[in-house]
Request: fold
Amino acid sequence: MRFKSWLISLFIIFLFLSFYGVFAQSKTAKYIGANKCKMCHNSKKSGQQFKIWQSSAHAKAYRELTSEKANAVAQELGIDNPQTSEKCLKCHGTTGGKDLKLVKEGVGCENCHGPGSLYKSMKVMKDIATGKTKPEDFGMIKAGEEQCKECHNQNSPTYKEFDFKTFWAKIAHPRPTE
Reply:
């Protein structure tokens, strides 16, 4: 009888841990790609944020790694291929090169705003916009100078003076007020 009780307790603990593991795993934000953002952020009502990003240097950051200049810089650094090097992809592709399906989109929405799987739904975005919930509760980051300087700093082999206010104005994509 004692063994049966112990076995039932063990089974209950196992079920709890399994449930907790599934729940905790579902709360881990994952990268979804800029095209998922496009569905809602390309309209005039949203300020055509996707279109603004798409025409930016950020959207072309991965393609820049195919240039002669990128290959010359890579060669100086002892890098065979800048398009596959973690040293280059950490700043030239979404996910920092960890997800090769998304890296080709360049510096995408999620580089600045965090992985979007938890905040991508219309309900969550509306709740954030109305203040019902906090963006950070869903892994969303309010982009700013700190995120920019993760790549735009003296560690970059092609670093140029970085004035946050000047460059921020070039990539601004605010949502129009209604």
